[in-house]
Amino acid sequence: MPRRPETAQASKPARPGGVADLLRQLWWTFTVASVAALAVIYSARPDVLAGMTVFPIWVWGLGPLFVSFLGTLRKKRPLGLAFLLWLILLTLYVDSPQAWVRGLVHPAPQERTETRPGYLRVITINIHDNTLALRDLVRYEPDLILVQETVSEQELIEVAGSLFDDGGHVLWNRDCALISRYPLERVDLSPVLRGNALSAIAQIPEVDGGQRVCVNVVHAYSQPFRFDMHTPEFWTAYYDRRLLQLKLMETITRDIPNVDQFDAYLVGGDFNAPPGDAVFSRLPKQLTDTFSRCGVGWGRTIANDLPLIRIDQLWVNQQLTPLTCAAFPSAGSDHRGVVADYLIEDGFGVVSQ
C-alpha cells in the first residue's frame, strides 16, 4: 500500500519572552539610567544633593551590582552587561582602589625604621576627648601629632612627656592641639576659628640648615547624619551644613599662613567630609591628599569599629614627599587615626640621606 505523503507541520509562532524578559529589560534600563545619573552626581557633587554624596558611591551601587551578578550566573546577557556597568562605575568612583592593591603587597606602617635626615612621621587623630587614644600612639614613634576633640593642655603635656625624651612640645586650643618632637611657634588665627583650626611652625633641626614646616590642624563641622531621606528636612539639613562647611574652609584657608612662605606645608585633621567633596577644593591648590598618592589598605576612619568613610586626611605640598600612609584602629576613640611618613625636600630635591 503506497505511503501517504507526510504533511508539513506548520511552524509554531515564537512565544514572547514573558515576564522574565520584561523584567530583564527593565533592569537594563534602570541600570543605564542609574549609572549615568550617579556618574554625573558624584562628578559634580552639587550642594543640593549633599545628603546623597556624603555617603560613598558603593552605598548606592553594591545592591544593584549583586543583583546583576546573580543574573550573570544564569548567563542572561542584559544582566551580565548591567553587572559590567555597575562594576566599572564603582571602580572609577570608589575612593583610592589602588590603596587596596598596595595593601596586598606592602604592610601598613607600624614600627619606625627610618633614620634618614628629613624623615618625618605624622599622625592625625580625633581622640574623642580620650587620653588613652593619645597614649596608644607611642608604638608609632611619631614626630608630629595633629589632635582634634582634644583633652586639657596638662594632659597633653603629660602625653608628650611619655612620647619624647625631652618632653616634646605642645600647642593647644579648646578643640585642636599639636604635639611635636620639634619646637613649635604658634601662628595666631582669627578668634572665630579657635574651635576649628590651629596653626604652628615646626622647626626641624635635623635637616641641613633647618626646615620650617607649617602645620595646620583642622576640625570641620560634623554632618547631621540623618537617614530620613524621604523628608524635605533631610535634604535641607545636609544642604545647610554643606554651605557652613564650605564657608568654614574658605575662612580657614584665608586665615592660615600662605603656603608659599614655607619650606614644607601640611594641613590635616577631621574634615567631616568624604574624599572628593567640595570642602577640599577650598584648600590651597598646591596641596595634595597623601592617602590618594601612597595609601595602603583600607583607609576609612569613621567609625573606629566599622570604618566606612575617609574623613580624616593629611594634605601636603610638594616639599613633603609621601612615602606611605595608612589608617589604624585607635584606642578609645570613635575615629581611626592616620599615620603617614614623609621626606622633606629642599629646593633641589630630597634632602641628603
UniProtKB/TrEMBL annotation:
One of its GO terms (molecular function) is endonuclease activity. It comes from the Bacteria. It holds the Pfam family Exo_endo_phos. Residues 132-335 form the Endonuclease/exonuclease/phosphatase domain. Gene3D superfamilies: Endonuclease/exonuclease/phosphatase. SUPFAM superfamilies: DNase I-like (SSF56219). Keywords: Endonuclease, Hydrolase, Membrane, Nuclease, Transmembrane, Transmembrane helix. The chain crosses the membrane at residues 21-42, 48-71, 78-94. InterPro entries: Endo/exonu/phosph_ase_sf, Endo/exonuclease/phosphatase. This is Endonuclease/exonuclease/phosphatase. The lineage of its organism: Bacteria, Pseudomonadati, Planctomycetota, Planctomycetia, Planctomycetales.
